Predict the structure.
Amino acid sequence: MDQISKMLHLESIHRRGILGEHVGIAVVDTGITPHPDFSTPKKNPVLFLDFLKHRRSPYDDNGHGTHICGILAGSGAASHGTLSGMAPKSSLIVLKVLNSMGNGNIEDVLPALDWILLHHREWNIRILNISIGCTTGKYFSESSILVKKVEQLWQAGIVVVAAAGNNGPKPQSIGAPANSRKIITVGASDDDGRSSYRFGLIPNYSGRGPTRECIQKPDLVAPGTGITSCNYRFSYTNPASMYAKKSGTSMSAPIVSGAIALLLSVAGELRPVEVKMLLRESAKDLGYPRNRQGWGMLDVEKMLQLV
């Protein structure tokens, strides 16, 4: 996260003690590996729930979820603080809903979302990060049960952040639940150029609006290409194995979710719609079309200055 830290001026924000403390972030993904960045004495405990095999101990047999969690709240312990996450003192509530291939069923996702709705006050869950998604289609339209469920969480006071997906650049390439008009949909700001090829993605991969219901999306963009975060397969004898680079809007979403955790740690009374408006008012216009960049690029410093 060192490159993101510099781009978003995180170092100065963290030095001011704005670290996401007392904010719970729920993550529905492939799980989480007990990485050093999640197990230091100063790190808030991680709650892990397995909706597939119902194991009690944290694990991640794919790596996607661990990478997401590192972007959100990694302490940076394995890098001596260099590669800390967006909100290193926030609490992670990790719900495993995807298998070792990164695939899942709606039947596994919905119970996880129901659990969040039932227990969000108990664990102070203020944010839900969804770096997974379904392809576009009638079953996953804005009126689908998946979209309605995340909107129910939004109405309950949880800020829901979803990745726009990697099916761009054609219009209407944003899947569910990111096609919800209520929640915050995040695209990648850096999806063009040769760097996309290096990480196995075509240029302009970030999902584009409008949705099939003619809603302009994404809402904003954040870096998503070549993001360094926690590696699920590592060796204590090989420090270089502690971190890995991944790309996609899956990485962009937790950058925004982590920024929101910083915001809520200093202005905890904000409602989801107020958070969304602050993101809009502080976003930096990149000069791209609305259905590519949304309001523009995430600007964490400016967002914090507005509260």
